[in-house]
Amino acid sequence: MRAITYSQYGSPDTLTLTDVADPRVGPGEVLIRVRSASVNPVDWKVAAGYLDGLMQVDFPAIPGWDVAGVVEAVGLDTPEYAVGDEVIAYARKDWVQHGTFAELVAAPVRTVARKPASLDWNQAAGLPLAGLTAYQLLKRLGTREGDTVLVHAAAGGVGILAVQIATALGARVIGTASEGNHEFLRGYGAEPVSYAAGLAERVRVLAPDGVDVVADFVGGVLETTLAVLADGGRHGSVTDPSVEPAGGISAWVRPDSADLQALADLADEGRLTVPVAEVFALEDAAKAFELSQGGHVRGKIAIEVSR
Predict the structure, then answer these.
(1) Contact between residue 133 and residue 158 where contact means Cβ atoms under 8 Å apart
(2) What is the pLDDT of residues 77-115, one digit of tens each?
(3) Range of the structural domain that residue 99 is part of
(4) N or C: which end of the chain has fewer CB within 10 A?
């Protein structure tokens, strides 16, 4: 099969389109014919070696954890799915080697859910990691109807999903973003505020008594978070462990098929969609990494593997 691989840590230039053996399908796994994958910042951070102390990488490695595709085969004792099922997965395993930037990927069923019919393949591929990151943090923070939620980096790939999920949970959402993204955020039901100097004061104008929940998807905003948090409020970050000594939650997304199915159901109920910023062919994965590294993408970056 065709796959993107890298044989050493480095820049996006290390990514190469290669022919590799088809993956084996173990018990409790499904083999997915990949229609689309998506790029997350963690993908190029792993490939650059930034997470070497945290994650085992076996070379040559295929990057990517997000996938949308069709079940090609099932492993032993895998009654949940059948050949031909359309699925999505946050196909993270215990080590990095056989990722989703390939024509085929084997995924444990604990990482898989059924593809939302309302999303196209590129949108569906952008849902798993980003959607689970947002959903799991908001749920851990006890987000509920009537809460006022501040989402830091609300126009990013995770933030825009957090805006929609919090709204679906019945919350009022304030989202930080550059001025150019304010109309974009309003389209998803958020009240936008500029993240420039004076952010805390602007949030306090919208929520004079403070916000109930702060979800941080950018890092480096703890001081602002604490300045706008209401008494008894809850806060957490997916990028900044320093929130823990300040009473917050430091979260790392987990594969969870039930959570992923809940997101797919929200999409099919018309309460969640995935904005796709740009779509690249498999052979252009390096360009997709470079775009992600720029840090100013509005929505998700997709890698279209097959049509």
Answers:
(1) yes
(2) 999 999 999 999 999 999 999 999 999 999 999 999 999
(3) 2-127+274-304
(4) C
